[in-house]
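Late entry, written up from scratch paper. The run itself happened at the end of the previous shift, but nothing got recorded in the book at the time, so transcribing now.
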Amino acid sequence: MQTFLRLVRHLRPYWRQVTLGVVAMIGVTLLRLVPPIFHKYIIDEVITNRVVSRLPLLVGGLVAVYAGEHLLSAVRLYVMHVLGEEFILDLRIRLYHHLQKLSLGYFETRQTGEIMSRITNDVNAVERFVTHSSDHLLVDVLRLIGTAVILLLLNWKLALITLIPAPVLVVAMRYFNTRVRPVYRAVRERLADINARLQDNISGIRVIKAFGQEERELARFTDESRGYYLARVRGIRMWSTFFPGMGFVASIGSVLVILVGTQMVLAGTLTIGGLVAFVAYVASFYEPINNLTQIDNIVQQAIAAGTRVFELVDAEPDLEDVPDATPFPTQPAPIAFEHVSFRYTTGDQVLRDVSFRIEPGQVVALVGPSGAGKTSIARLLPRFYDPNQGRITIGGIDLRRFRRAALRWQIGVVLQDTFLFSGTVRENLMYGRPDATEEKMVAAARTAYAHDFILALPGGYDTEIGERGVKLSGGQRQRIALARAVLTNPRILILDEPTSVVDAEAEYLIQQALEQVLAGRTALVIAHRLSTIRNADKIIALEDGRIVEAGNHDELLSRQGLYSQMYRRQHALAGIGQD
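Output as recorded:
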């Protein structure tokens, strides 16, 4: 019930459309109650009593009633369907806006396809309630009451007979709701599983083909699809037996009315027209009951979908801006990690009491084995996460005192796993600075040694690069990502192993680009290939989440510690020998 009330409350901004739709629907309902009265007079007056002069007036009135009914019905259909589309538009935008506020931890614990299913499939299920049920729910209740009053006025004895099946219908509906709600929830979850599997498989199609796992993935997708199918069939089995059963129980009331009404006509206590009108109203009485059972089915599906939608709405971001945020320093300022410890919500502690300082304009490199905590440090600096202990400062001010947008505007990030959007080279370059001039865009591309290869592409800067930049090489993607970061002109640059996935030629070009990009900038570089950070102002070696040594290249080599071991091992493996 709570979810249903929340769905209704979300309709408040659209009260004008809802009111117009309800008024139109009430008009349709009232007009539908009128024809049996005309039928009664046509039978009793025109046919039975031979008052033919009244026929044109009665027929004309009947035509006018039908015309008004269908006109108002057209108004209702248009208003409510447009309302449904507007409601879904606003809800999807609101959900996406809220999704962007959530912290990275939320996305790391959920599958992309599952999140997408909430914004697409579950929202569509809610739209069915808005379009097909929100106004009907009220109007059918009013119609039920109005018809019951008319039945009592026509013949209270027959009216009481009509109501005999009603308690059975009410009890059956409550039982159905209790049984069907978890079934519909399971349907939504199975559909989300299909979307998640499909999204993963399409994104990883190259890996699937490379390892020849098409049949295995087909089997897994088949299992997910069969789970959805079985959940759907269970729901279908329930409502396909429930609704006809409800219809049968309702028809018993009509049979009883005809049985008793016929006897009353034969006894002369009821006219034939009165019986015809009463039977018509009985049908009109049970129609809203049948409608309400159908609406209830839609409502149950909407509640199941709405529960999943509201779970997303209710998710709170781990990080928030403080109300009295401090302006970001206007001048270059030192960065300090002060006794920082950190763990992800789903794992063990990855940083332990880490402290170091980056002076303005310094290039500091992080090295160490996989899992040492290098990338975690790079994620903490733009405040994708907050440390569990300690603090990170810029100019002596805790990062939590800055607005996240102001902080991230000053930081450029180039990740090891470069992500490019489907679109053109130009669109990707200007992603962080959409208002940049052509000259600045080209200058950034030149700085990143990307301009020449971009011009060699079929469409130059307007070349479509495909999803995730699939039409480009790894080195080309890295240089575009580097140029994208340069174009925002950040004070602080974070480079997460920018040459680890490229060949020697691409590494050379990227290294040349980095020398220009890093000039005059404060930079944090995560290095996989240690030869690329020999000229760093400071090299910090990490192991098991702790800093084990720090210094420049020559100092660390002379200490014969972790850095020296890693450096010499890499050179030996490369066949270069020791430095």
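The first helix runs from residue 2 to 9.
(Scratch paper discarded after transcription.)
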